[in-house]
């Protein structure tokens, strides 16, 4: 009987003390300097924090000052930027679109190279991250910020990717290029012969040409480390978490370390504030909600008036 009681108390002590001995991991999230991308990372980061991990989130000063993101249980690492990358990029892309002009990708690449250079040459930022002694970095999976993995390389810390971009080349996914519609075109799975040829050419081109990173990036920002090309460094990612839904999107090939986690940008439902609830309750015919992505911070006056004119002709109440 005494032996049985001893074994029972030993098991109880192990169950109680084991979580205290193991503890959570230290995770640092580094999203791109845009509100929507940071929001995706914030939602995943809060989930990890609820699991007992210590989580930090890097964020530019202009997003911190807006105070629009829920950073509950997260520690924000604020960094300074000389320019507001979000305003510049959104103004350029939205402005060109409404003027009927093509997207200026050269300007986009130039500013993202500047963004990466700003952080990778920021000694105080690097020391602040180093002092945390993180167990894992989580970067945005846009090619535009692939050079940020140099930080994890310098510290010898594993890293993962989280974002909306499905990138077969960097994710090392075998594929037939002609069968995967490109993100930047309105192609679907029933492509014409010309569309399949164009898709193949662009896939091949993007797999051999990387205009988003310096060829000597590791030598430039981590001269003390053995040289690696950016594609070799990115290939070391432990896992890719892609904000896509396999049910709502086209079928695509994948690999075991690529996980589709569509829906992280959404949150649980909450009661509406009083003024909004009364507005919705009074809408007998229904409500039209017009919501634009953060890439469109302000519409041209003519476009705004057209939207308002259409909404006024509808029998619904409108929220714009």
What does this structure look like?
The chain has 320 residues and is of the alpha/beta class. It contains 12 helices and 9 strands. The chain has helices at residues 2-22, 35-50, 61-66, 85-98, 105-120, 123-131, 149-155, 193-208, 217-221, 230-234, 274-281, 301-313; strands at residues 26-30, 54-60, 75-79, 136-140, 159-163, 240-242, 258-260, 287-289, 317-319. Strands 3-2-1-4-5-6-7 form a 7-stranded parallel β-sheet. The chain is globular and about 65 Å long. The N and C termini lie far apart (73 Å).
Question: Any descriptors?
Answer:
42% helix, two-stranded parallel ribbon, 320 residues, 12% strand, seven-stranded parallel β-sheet, disordered N terminus, alpha/beta
Brief rundown of the structure:
The protein has 320 residues and is α/β, with parallel strands linked by helices. It has helices spanning 2-22, 35-50, 61-66, 85-98, 105-120, 123-131, 149-155, 193-208, 217-221, 230-234, 274-281, 301-313; strands spanning 26-30, 54-60, 75-79, 136-140, 159-163, 240-242, 258-260, 287-289, 317-319.
How do the strands and helices of this protein lay out in sequence?
Layout (H helix, E strand, L loop, with lengths): L1 H21 L3 E5 L4 H16 L3 E7 H6 L8 E5 L5 H14 L6 H16 L2 H9 L4 E5 L8 H7 L3 E5 L29 H16 L8 H5 L8 H5 L5 E3 L15 E3 L13 H8 L5 E3 L11 H13 L3 E3 L1
Parallel strand pairs: 1-2, 1-4, 2-3, 4-5, 5-6, 6-7, 8-9
């Amino acid at each position: 009987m005494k032996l049985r009681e001893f074994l029972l108390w030993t098991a109880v002590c192990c169950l109680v003390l084991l979580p205290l001995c193991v503890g959570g991991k230290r995770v640092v999230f580094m999203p791109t300097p845009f509100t929507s991308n940071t929001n995706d990372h914030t939602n995943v980061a809060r989930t990890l924090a609820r699991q007992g991990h210590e989580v930090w989130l890097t964020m530019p000063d202009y997003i911190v000052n807006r105070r629009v993101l829920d950073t509950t249980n997260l520690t924000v690492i604020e960094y300074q930027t000389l320019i507001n990358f979000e305003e510049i990029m959104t103004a350029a892309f939205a402005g060109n679109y409404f003027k009927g002009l093509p997207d200026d990708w050269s300007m986009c690449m130039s500013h993202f190279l500047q963004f990466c250079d700003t952080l990778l040459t920021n000694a105080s930022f690097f020391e602040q991250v180093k002092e945390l002694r993180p167990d894992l970095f989580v970067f945005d999976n846009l090619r535009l910020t692939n050079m940020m993995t140099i930080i994890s390389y310098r510290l010898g810390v594993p890293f993962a990717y989280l974002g909306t971009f499905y990138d077969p080349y960097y994710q090392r996914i075998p594929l037939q290029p002609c069968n995967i519609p490109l993100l930047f075109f309105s192609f679907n799975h029933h492509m014409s012969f010309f569309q399949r040829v164009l898709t193949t050419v662009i896939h091949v081109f993007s797999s051999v040409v990387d205009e988003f990173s310096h060829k000597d990036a590791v030598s430039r920002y981590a001269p003390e480390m053995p040289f690696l090309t950016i594609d070799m460094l990115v290939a070391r990612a432990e896992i890719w978490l892609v904000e896509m839904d396999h049910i709502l999107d086209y079928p695509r090939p994948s690999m075991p370390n690529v996980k589709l986690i569509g829906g992280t940008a959404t949150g649980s439902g909450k009661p509406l504030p009083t003024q909004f609830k009364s507005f919705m309750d009074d809408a007998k015919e229904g409500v039209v909600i017009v919501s634009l992505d953060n890439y469109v911070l302000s519409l041209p006056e003519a476009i705004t008036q057209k939207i308002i004119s259409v909404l006024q002709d509808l029998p619904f109440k409108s929220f714009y």
